[in-house]
Amino acid sequence: MITDFTIIFWIRYVKILFGQLNAVLQNMLTTTIDSPQHKRVLQMKDNWEDDSSLSTIYRTYKANENLKKLKRVKQIHLELIKCAGIINEAYGLQILMSMSSSVFIIILFLYNLYSIGITNKYDNWMKDSCGQIYWIFCFFFKIFAINNICERTMTEKHILISVILLYAANTGDILYELYEPSSSRKCRDEIHDIMYQLVQNRLKFTAYGFYDIDHTFIYTIIGSITTFLVILIQLGDKPNVFNGSNINTSMSTI
User: Fold this and answer.
1) Long-range Cβ contact pairs of 130-135 (< 8 A, separation 24 or more)
2) What pTM was computed for the model?
3) How far apart are CA 126 and CA 19, in angstroms?
4) Following DSSP, what letter does each residue of 18-38 receive, concatenated?
5) 9 with 47: CB under 8 angstroms?
6) How many CB atoms lie under 10 A from the CB of residue 17?
7) How big is the CA angle at 86 (ends 104 and 158), to the nearest 5 degrees?
8) Helix H or strand E segment including 169
9) Residues 155, 215: contact at Cβ < 8 Å?
10) Which end of the chain, C or N, has fewer beta carbons within 10 A?
11) CB under 8 Å to 24, separation ≥6 — which residues?
């Protein structure tokens, strides 16, 4: 459990860093909900003749600053991808063992609950059932927590709060908004390189290379648990029902 919490901590830390990186890119955007990209381009085209030399100098300075930021963002993003890969490589076997053991224990406890419900073997069946339901919830929560934090990190989503709007955006969407005709040629080339880097270095978490850790894996686990539970119920022997008459008959036979 300590190792599982360690995995969640480090992956969550990487996700926070990706969020901060997206916040830097978000601050570079000049488009808003009230002034989208196509309106800005038309407005700039109408005002080109009225631009003063001071505004031209400011745009040149702003373009150079954005170019420097984009180069740093590209380098930092690549380093974060490498860090995430190191974390996945270090904890991949642990994730595989944790997911496999959790699925096995959940199936075992669910089948045990079914047996208790059929046989009514124990007088304190409510106490035993509550305990097993508690552990089923704990193991399923662990599966959901690890897969959810990996999914959110891979999508590189970050919630940004503005004065008017609350919205979520990932790195690719922000770069697409930055790639506008009003940007300089060097900035557009740098954005193109970053987008190519995103495609070539996709962030992915796996369980020691056997399967991907994301929301899809949660659905797979639910389907697998249901399938194995149905197989155990259909192929397994029907549990014997222990009651007072059976016990008396057995004692008289002896």
Assistant:
1) 133/109, 135/105, 135/109
2) 0.76
3) 46
4) HHHHHHHHHHH----SSS-HH
5) no
6) 17
7) 85
8) strand 166-169
9) no
10) C
11) 69, 73
Q: Please name the residues in contact with 121: beta carbons below 8 A apart, sequence gap of 6 or more.
A: 115, 239, 242
168 DSSP assignment: E
| pLDDT value of position 212 | 92
Closest CA to 60 of 151, 221, 239, 186: 186
**Which single residue is written with the structure tokens 């079914």?**
114
User: Residue 176: what residue type?
Assistant: Y
pLDDT tier at 119 (50, 70, 90 boundaries)?
Answer: confident
Q: Report yes or no: 116 and 129 within 8 Å, Cβ to Cβ.
A: yes
Q: Distance between CA atoms of 233 and 226, rounded to whole angstroms? A: 11
Terminal-to-terminal C-alpha distance of the chain: 49
Q: Map residue 248 onto helix, strand or coil.
A: helix
Q: What is the pLDDT of residues 84-113, one digit of tens each?
A: 999 999 999 999 999 999 999 999 999 988
Q: How far apart are CA 158 and CA 191, in angstroms?
A: 19
Structural tokens at position 230: 């149905």
CA distance 76 to 226: 43
Question: What tokens were used for 132?
Answer: 């097993």
Give per-residue pLDDT as tens, 173-232: 777 777 765 567 888 888 888 888 888 888 889 999 999 999 999 999 999 999 999 998
Exposed / middle / buried, residue 40 (Cβ in 10 Å: 0-12, 13-18, 19+): middle
